[in-house]
Amino acid sequence: MKTPVLYIVIPCYNEQEVLPVTSPLFLQKLEHLIEKGRVAPESRVVFVNDGSKDDTWAIIQGLAAQNEHFEGVCLSRNRGHQNALLGGLMTVKDKCDITISIDCDGQDDINAMDEMVEQYWQGCEVVYGVRSKRDTDTFFKRFTAEGFYKVMNWMGAQVVFNHADYRLLSSRVLREFANFKEVNIFLRGMVPLVGFKSTSVYYERAERMAGESHYPLKKMLALAFDGITSLSVKPIRLITGFGFLVSVVSFIGVLWAVVRAIMGATVAGWASTTAIVCFMGGIQLLCLGVIGEYIGKIYMETKARPRYIIGETTFEETGE
Ligand code: UDP
Ligand code: MG
Description:
Elements: E1 6-12, H1 19-35, E2 44-49, H2 56-66, E3 70-75, H3 81-92, E4 98-101, H4 112-121, E5 126-131, H5 139-154, E6 163-170, H6 171-177, H7 187-194, E7 198-203, H8 217-231, H9 234-262, H10 270-303, E8 310-313
Parallel strand pairs: 1-2, 1-4, 2-3, 5-7
Antiparallel strand pairs: 3-8, 4-6, 5-6
Helix pairs in contact: 5-8
The site of magnesium ion has 5 residues, from loops.
């Protein structure tokens, strides 16, 4: 087998504090893999600047000028983690044989890359980085994050438990992935849909080396909601089932009321009636909201706007 060219793709958003700390670590890892002969010398570390408002892009440009192993891709504006990562992967897919995507904050153990590359040599084209435990997280983060995967799976979005966006993908997988044209993207739920031989590699996740998380609870909920609604229609089915159940129950209630009226026993309870009406009103609004969410998604998909726009890169023009 030919020694693969590896591109490590790293989305960065306002990471000026982190980059100077973690970029040498990524470079070291790449050089180590090159030395061992597991990846080719033309391998690169590619930073994707996701419309940062700080000096991130200047830092990336500086790195690219300093060392031939560093490259940068700059999006025209902030598009969010998933789109930035996709933009990076699509930019490099024809330049390399394998990619590893990883966050730039040093939380994911870069030493798992050796094992990922090893698995590629063994014939796997998708290698998921899976967190073995969550000791370094606060109880709140652990609770919400694990709940996230459970709810996702329950709602019919099949995702690898405790796998975020740290994974190896071969260029063949990426070429197939390029045919997934949807605008609402949730990479970790979509990669399994591509297929090919896959496996997992386990690692422990550390704390952020600097800066702050860009995934507070609100964004995490939004990501979970996106993941569920872009991968499954189960919520709509649940609503249909619930509507059916409520209809059956109320039908029985009506029958019961009629029987009682015939027997001459009129019921006073207006308060309970009002409570039920309000409750049902609330449920109906919720259901309309969920359905509206899907219609919104369809609206975005029909427009088929670009998912990201590349402003500039540090790659040399190849005249293609
Ligand atoms: N990120 C990005 N665009 C955004 C938000 C985040 O490219 O709009 C990047 C960020 O720079 C980091 C990765 O996505 O490399 C994960 O973000 P973060 O570490 O804040 O999330 P957490 O690890 O806390 O879930
Ligand atoms: Mg992080």
